[in-house]
Amino acid sequence: MDYTFLLSKNDHICFDILSRFTQQADQTLNKEELAQSLSLTTYQLNKYFETMNTDLASVAEETPCYLDEPNKGTWQAFGLNSYLLQKVTLLYLNRAPLFTALEYQFFYNHLYTKKEYVTANYMSSSVFYRSLDSLSDTLTKHNFFQASSLYASKEFTVRLHLFQLYYTLYNGVSEPFEPLNPLIDNMVAAIQSGLPDELNPTQETKLATFLRIWLLRMLDKNTIGNNQQLQIKPTASSQAMMEQLQNLLADQLELTAEEFNYLYSFLIAQGYLGFDKMRELAANIPAVDELTAQFMGEMQDTNVLLTTHLVDDHQLEDSLLSIHFQFTTFYIEPTTFISPDQVQFFAELYPAFDVAVSHSITKLQRREDLHLTQKMAVNLYFSYMFALINAVPAELMRDQVHICVDFSQGNLYTNYVIQSLSAFNHAHIIIDAHLTADTDIYISDFHSKKVSQTQVIWQDPPTPVDWSNLADLILDAKRQKLPSLFPNQDTAQKGSGVDEIQQDSEK
Length: 507
Prior knowledge:
The protein has helices at 9-22, 31-38, 42-59, 82-94, 97-108, 114-120, 125-141, 154-170, 181-192, 201-219, 236-249, 257-269, 275-282, 286-301, 313-328, 340-349, 351-365, 374-391, 411-420, 464-485, 496-506, and strands at residues 28-30, 66-71, 74-78, 401-405, 429-432, 441-444, 454-457. The protein is an alpha/beta fold and 507 residues long. 32% of the residues are buried.
């Protein structure tokens, strides 16, 4: 969910313009084209130019960040990157009346009167009341109250979307609700003591943000309820964790079994407690097994593997369990690995996987209960791809590329190139000890008339350009194999899987 709809009109235009700079390699924009695209006059555009420079100056750190017009009609950004864009977006968010109204509605409306909150935030009463009146309709329009997973509890959905808002926009810049920092640090430490492994920085940040939303919703008397589908089995470890948290919260609230169950379920869904706990809790969600079985069935139906026996089926099973458990419960719409442009690369490098993955996602998109957006579909594409790449060895793939390495200088040179080819092991490469009918590419230091296959001649150690050209040949070999490997698929234009994802998302 894109939460920039909360920004005021003028700040949203500034955000739009700054985002366009970061999408250009040279960070330049044509002023006339920009004015036409945004339906702005030259005067308006110049005013926004001044505003953006003021905003960038306020968030820049050691390196200056600003916009300039080095040539008439051309704007260029200097020192602007994704991190500074996130900082200026957070600046816009915190001065947006709609965001102030949102924080009151979801975190403080049972603790303070509207008048008390307006006074505390130095706001105009009329602006606050207008924002509060329009908040519900605005959030509904942007699907804030629509469940993003199969878990349809209203409070569960609200908390999940609030978490996504704060985690996305604050992550790496600052902590939301900073007065809570000491308490949150102690809560994270208490939870960490009951986990099998040390939390990484990204995991700790995610947990801390989750705890802030969880705590504030409880303090504002918005409880999770006792009708949760996810029900943990209490253990000595979980009980000890609950007692530690209750001691920390004793002055503010009573930690109920239902609320701890909700928190512990989140820890399990994020994989903080291991796959055994996740597998145990997933037994309460039939859709997890259903989606996994559907995906494995697609692998068999599309005949991707030479054999259906996977060497590391346990690893694939664990990966699919994690994907589907999070997808059906605590699904947090990602902000990374969501670009359809990058899918093309994987579709070409792993065409067999692309067929199975794209078909699986297309089926999911046609289910009305999953509410699969394009961002979700693309992220799921990457998740499935990575799960297969990590678990399925090249020897099992039908779209293998066979390479024979044969240098006249002998094994020393030959083995060096073979060892270097390990960098391409993700491309399902099989090294042939001798030239065979299956060989697709022949690498040597001299051309041979006895070889009919594609030949690569390296008379000196290969350069980065040589490796790049070899990668292109590997992709070409894969494309040529597709029609015979998948005769029932439209492989004339690779990347069709991406097109299916995009087209179905637009329906």
